[in-house]
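Note to self: the last two entries modelled the partners one at a time, which told us nothing about the interface. This time every component goes in together.
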Amino acid sequence: MIPSPRLLLTIDYESWYAPSRRYDSLTSKERRNLDDGFACNALDPILEKLKDVKTSIYLVGELVEWYPDLPQKIADAGHEVGFHCQVHRPLTTVADIEHDLEKSFEWRRKYNVRGFRAPMINTIEDVYPILERNNFIYSSSLYAPTGTVLRKGNIWELPVSTFPLLGHPANIQAPRRMNLPLVLGGEFPYGSSMMSGLFTKTVFRIIERELKAGLSPVIFLHPYEIVPPNNWPARFARDLLANPLLYPFTFNKSNFLNDLLHSFPISTLADFIKESAQ
Ligand SMILES: [Zn+2]
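The predicted structure of the combined assembly is written out below.
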């Protein structure tokens, strides 16, 4: 059955420095010190803001090691606990993906995690059989036009939304990440919080239009875009100088989130897939 159109609002729950690759090789302890309690303290205000609206929250597993209450709090508030990798860094080889899944096995099992969001929305076709072996039902790890629902073996793939300006792409395969070929191919990746940071009103209008057309957009936000970290974005200045494309990730999207929550029907991806499968 085709589920009623709704906004599939997701949060990639990661520390404030996750968009930069400069911290990938630090030890977990060093990253925890850098996080400085942010990922722990941001959750309550975010859950408060979401109130009764249920979203999919993809957790970085390392944060669960540091702050073991996170997944239970998310689940208790009625949201879906999903997986955004154990340590936030590119995962584009079979060996790295398998290793990451092994390290996250215990907490994923405990919270019955069934949804996967690849870091940086960048994955490979080989991820799907691995996800299947690891008890996942779906992934949301590509960019593709809204309404795209793929079956990769037994795994559903529900891509993050793009708006195709030059017609639909023919063959949708991983990787489909935010890069020049995607944009030059005429796809506006409005599901990314980079785009909702730069073109807030346009993204809102596209969501409105897609819903009217019966489609269900998939978009993501990050905790640091809803609850600004201390001394923000100054503490990220060096990374912003090195890569100015990261700047939109530091914009406060709290008002944008409020507008979404007040304007559109919203559900988790898990519920959307459950209804699709009926
Ligand atoms: Zn991420």
